[in-house]
Known about the structure:
The chain is mainly alpha-helical. The protein folds into 2 domains: 1-65 and 128-173, no CATH class; 66-120, no CATH class. Helix content is 57%, strand content 8%. The protein is built from 6 helices and 2 strands. Strands 1-2 form a two-stranded antiparallel ribbon. A hairpin with a 2-residue loop joins β1 and β2 (48-54). It is elongated and about 80 Å long. The two termini are 25 Å apart. The relative contact order is 0.17.
Amino acid sequence: MNTPEEVMKGGAFIVNAGIKAESRAQGHYLTGGMESSLSYVVGKFGSFRILSASAVEYTRFVNNGVAAGRVPYSPGAHTGAGTSKYIEGLRQFFILRGKSDKDALAFAFATANKHKQQGMPTTASNRFSSTGQRTGMIEAAMTKKEQELDAYMSVNFDRLVEQNFQKCKSETI
């Protein structure tokens, strides 16, 4: 590690690994799309070093959940829009889980009704989690990786300071 940017990238790698592991432990893995969307960029802005991280938009709904009143579905309502993106997304989820198109649509509407009652995640979805949690994967990952991240950053930034000190010391002599 010769630059602050390299140290920051290493720290981001630790955090991303934690988020991926926690996401899977909470049962949020089907296609790997959310995992593969986790990314970061490190750059300079004047004398500052900046790390910016991002993920696919639905990550925030998986992490935070959705209150029942915010679920975009109204049973029996016909909006005239044709196909609901929400229902279509649920249908695709069940197709990926091996259901027929007809069954997937039925499961999609049943799930939408349950989401409208309980919000997301539903209480029944806890069975997919090995941690007992279905929200807060980012916060849980940060808590679990905090000591590793602190140790990594401390050792590597100390090393950078020492390298720069030795360089300045040898240039002064």
